[in-house]
Specification:
Blueprint lengths: L2 E6 L8 H9 L7 E6 L2 H9 L4 E5 L2 H11 L1 E2 L3 E2 L2 H7 L5 H9 L15 E2 L21 E2 L4 H8 L1
Helix pairs in contact: 3-5
C-alpha cells in the first residue's frame, strides 16, 4: 500500500453536513491544508464522498521530505528538525524518516508533537478550475502521481 497526499481545494460555504463531517474526520478543515493518509478501502470511500472539495494522489519520497522539512510543524508552531527526528525515532535525518514512512517502516505519528496537517500556500500560477475534476482540466479529484507537481508548487 502507498501513502496518499490529500489537499483541500475548495472552501466551506454551502457544504452539506455529511461532507463537512467527513472533511473534519480527514482533518481537512481549511483550503490548502494537506494530510498524508494510508491507502485503504475506508480512506478511499471517504475520499470518494468529498471528491468535489479535494484532490489527492500518491506522494513520492522527495515531496514527502520537502513537506516534512519546510511545512512540518510541532505543537507550539516549531519547525521539524533532524535533531527532533533523531530524538523521537530511530532515524537520524528527515530524509531517512520520509523514506521509512513511505516504506511503511515508520508512521508520522512516531513523532508525538508533529501536527497531522501541513498548511500549504496556494499554488503558484493557481488552480486550473476549482469546479471541475482533474480529468476535465480542473483541480478536483484523483490525480495520481501528478499530485507531486501540485505539492511542489504549494510548498
Amino acid at each position: 500500500m502507498s501513502k496518499l497526499a490529500v489537499i483541500r481545494v475548495r472552501g466551506t460555504v454551502d457544504v452539506r453536513g455529511e461532507v463537512t463531517d467527513t472533511l473534519k474526520s480527514l482533518r481537512l478543515t481549511r483550503p490548502n491544508h494537506c494530510v498524508i493518509l494510508e491507502e485503504n478501502s475506508n480512506t478511499k470511500g471517504m475520499l470518494q464522498k468529498v471528491k468535489d472539495y479535494i484532490t489527492w494522489g500518491s506522494i513520492n519520497e522527495e515531496n514527502l521530505e520537502k513537506l516534512l522539512r519546510k511545512r512540518g510543524r510541532l505543537k507550539g508552531d516549531k519547525s521539524l528538525t533532524n535533531e527532533i527526528v533523531s530524538n523521537n525515532t530511530q532515524y537520524d535525518t528527515i530524509s531517512e524518516f520520509a523514506k521509512a514512512v513511505l516504506d511503511e517502516e515508520a508512521e508520522l505519528s512516531d513523532i508525538e508533537e508533529l501536527k497531522e496537517v501541513f498548511r500549504l500556500r496556494p499554488p503558484k500560477k493557481g488552480y486550473k478550475s476549482t469546479q471541475r475534476s482533474f480529468q476535465d482540466r480542473g483541480a478536483l479529484g484523483y490525480r495520481g502521481e501528478k499530485i507531486n507537481d501540485l505539492i511542489g508548487r504549494m510548498i
